[in-house]
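Narrative of activities, Objective 1.

The group set out to show that a structural description can be obtained from nothing but a protein's sequence at a throughput compatible with the screening campaign. Below is one input-output pair from the validation batch, recorded exactly as produced.
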Amino acid sequence: MRLGELGAPVAGPGHRLERTADLGFELEVLDYLLKPISFDRFLKAANKAFDYFRLQQTPSAAQDYIFVKADSKLEKINFTDILFAEALENYVAIYTREKKIITHLTLKMLQEKLPAGKFIQPHKSYLVAVEKINSIEGNILHVLQYQVPISKYQKEEVMEKIVNSKLLKR
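Output recorded for this entry:
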């Protein structure tokens, strides 16, 4: 796969500088390489492309909400409003303080849109907002009035992510 196929044009080696430079400007190329290409110059261009594509794949900090289709309308859900999400076969129930929104998604699809460090998956059927967890009792996370199970296979990883170095003990 060439870099140009990923969405950002890339100009290859060329000799007609003026015409190619104009075309490169129009296409918004990331870099332009002239023959003969030194390794250092190639590496600089490759790093520039790598950084560009990495930034393109990172969700922006300004994007702090999603829209989901529920009851034949699009509902805006701020990430900070989500308490947890529960998988219901081909649907997901998203719980907020005010309501429960059921949408036709998979839990995996929702997880890909949420900020990774803010949500954990304590069980194959649940995603929980870490900052909304009030307490942990046995294999249960308490989130407001709700109880979310912790899988026995996930318990150690969940405890590490939630408690980490924040546990005060004697």
